[in-house]
Structures are given as C-alpha cells and as structure tokens.
Amino acid sequence: MKLTPSPFAPARFPDLPVVKGVRATTGSRGFYAARGMTRDDVFLFSFEEGTHCAGVYTLSHTASADVIWCREALKSGAGKARALIANSGNSNAFTGAKGVLKNEATLKALTETLGVEKQECFLAATGVIGEPLPDPNYVGAFVPDLAGKLSAPDWEAAARAFMTTDTFPKGAGLATKIDGVDVNLAGIAKGSGMIAPNMATMLAYVFTDAAIAPDLLQGLLEEVTNQTFNNITVDGDTSTSDTLMVFATGANGMAEIATRDDPRFAEFASALKQVCLDLSHLIVKDGEGASKFVTITVEGAVSETSAKVVACSIANSPLIKTAMAAGDANWGRIVMAVGKSLEPIDMDQLAIWFDDVQVASAGGRMPDYSEAAAGGVFAQPEFTIRVHLGVGEASATVWTCDLTHGYVDINGAYRT
C-alpha cells in the first residue's frame, strides 16, 4: 500500500535533545517481508538503573497481550524500568495463549540478554489484529542482535520503526532548565488511524533525564493525558494497543522531585504537557487521508466532561468531517451534533463560530450571515470551530481532522 504523504508532514524530523541514561537501536525482523517491504520494524530501548516510569493504556476490553503485560509490570515493578521493546506489523492483540507465549519468550530474552528484572521490561506491538506470530520467539530471538547495537538514540530511526499507516515519523522534544539543572525531554509517537484514545493504533513514549518519584509521575501522566492524547480523534475508534509511557532516568543529577509542593514539579509538568501536546497534534495531522487539522472548542457547558462529550460529538460526526473535507461550512450539522450528544444546552443561547466568523447566535442564524465568509474558513487547512452552549462556565478542546476518500482507500487496503 503506497501512502500519500500528509500535507502537514514537516520538512524534516526535529532535532531532539540528548537524554542521559537512555540507549536505543532499531532493526528489521521481517514483519513486512510478505508485503515486499524491507524496513526497520522493531526498536529496543534500555535505561540506566534507577529509571522510573509511568504509563496509561487503552481501556478497550479487547486490549492486546502487550498492554495487559505492561499494566501488570507497571504495578508489580513499582514504576521501575530497564527496557522497552516494540514492533510494528503485528499488534499481538486477540491472539490468546499464543500472544502470551510471545510475550514470555520476549521477556525471557530481555532478562537474560540485558541482565534486568522481568517486571522492569515493557512491551508494545502495533499492526494487524488477530494474527498470531509463526513462532512465539519471533521477537525474542532478535533481542541479542538488537542489544549488541545499543547506543545513543537515533530518535528518527526509532520513530520510523513503529510506523504503520503513518506517512511521517513523529517526534517532539524540549530542553529546559529547572532550578539551574538541564532537563531534557524527547518523545516519539505513531498513529494515523483507529485514533480516539481512551485511557489510537497509537503508541507514544516520552523520555527524560529528570528525576521524579514514580507515583508522582503516574499521577501527572494521567492528568496530562486527559489534556492532550485523550482529546484527539481521527475516526472515533479506540485501538486495542493504545499506550503512552514516560521514562525518567534521573541521570541529569538533579535531586528527585518527590512531592507536588516542590516548586520544580510545576515546571516539569509544563514541559511534559507541551511535549505530549505536540505529539498528539502530529498524530491528528497525519490522520489517514487527512487534509484539514481542526480545533473544536466547546464553551458554556455545565462541566468539562459535558463540554468534551459535545466536542467529540462534533469531531466524530462523519457528516461534519466530510463537510470539512469539501470545504462546506454546513453549520447546521454542528447544531445536529450538539443535539445528539444529549448534553445540557440552552438552545436559545446556542452560538457557533468558525474562527472569528460567527454563524449562529441566540439559537439561530446570524442576521448578517455570510456563506462566503464561513466557506472561506472551511477552505483553510487549519481552522477552529467554537460552540457556546449557554448553560455554564466549563469548556473543553478537542483536535480532529477531516474525512476524505483517502481514509477509505487506506483502510480498504490495510491488510494488503
């Protein structure tokens, strides 16, 4: 399947900072050989002793064997991490006992090769659902080769290795100083379709040399996720493999951030949120077949949760997404999506804007409504839809893309 690059693809992969305490490598295990492709499809990361981690995973009831293992390891290992391995081309989801055997073989290879504890090793897989690997040790057998090549991370190579229908590798990073100490963050993500995270086939990893207690990091990651990755949608489908993890090596020498009262906590939280926000936006901008990047903000709601439900109702509507693709500023479809959400609204106060162009006010069309002005906004590659519900003070923002023929072409040929 030949993919057309996203119109939002950056000219080049960003220069990500060096993160102390992290080594990585990539390689080709042959997951795409049957499709006539030769490409790296596995990455391995190793972390210095003392690395802490946090993770959020799909809430899908058909979660992959890898996600199930990561949940267990995060708990049993008390937030310690020494290794991460991921493959593309096969999601190891809905593979039953064979999927568990694949994980056991991979974990055995990691513990023996790297000399680390099993519960400090994390796994991920992305790709086709329901296809067991031909050999449980298919990935595990490759671990010694990968381990022999571990070195300073090539972030772009790692970002490419777990791509599936992505049209460009996704990376974001930030270098800052916290209390006079250099703190670096580097993140990579993959995802293009099956994106409506509920914790999209989405995997994302952020690495930092900051020192932060694992329980504190876990709570922070959950908060950041609900402000970033859980507020994006491409097609409304939640993956069996959704994973977001942060690995904090503490290798920059800073004293550990152990409480929220520590003034350094807010600075680190801001940096982590920025990297996660950048990565989540890149996923939407590479949505399968996408030609528009759209911000949807709902205001005047009774609660933030209610505002998000309405925003997602708009973002996931096929009628609205196809109108976006065609540049048709059909604001009546926004009214439809608001109503079908079944959330509290005051219809007589409902107002709608496309960027700064107000198209509806006080429950009706603007007296000076201009189809040309509204259509001009929808013709842009990036724009904002803003809705005021008139029943409260809460708001939420969701990011999405349009739905084009490209989405059908990609998913119609996904397994071929």
Short description:
This protein has 416 residues and is an alpha+beta fold. Helix content is 31%, strand content 25%.
In words, what does this structure look like?
This protein is α+β, with helices and mostly antiparallel strands and 416 residues long. The chain folds into 2 domains: 22-283, L-amino peptidase D-ALA esterase/amidase (4-Layer Sandwich), CATH 3.60.70; 293-412, ArgJ beta chain, C-terminal domain (Ubiquitin-like (UB roll)). The chain has helices at 65-76, 96-114, 143-147, 155-161, 214-227, 263-285, 304-315, 318-326, 331-340, 371-378, 405-412; strands at 22-27, 42-47, 52-57, 83-90, 121-128, 170-178, 181-190, 203-208, 232-233, 243-248, 293-301, 351-354, 357-361, 364-365, 382-388, 394-401. The strands form 3 sheets. Strands 9-16-11-15-12-13-14 form a 7-stranded mixed β-sheet, with helices on both faces. Helix 5 crosses helix 6 (263-285) and helix 7 (304-315) crosses helix 9 (331-340).
Find the structural class using helix and strand composition: alpha+beta
Total strands: 16
Name the quaternary structure: single chain
How much helicity do the residues have? 25-40%
- Let me know the average pLDDT: 93
Shape: globular
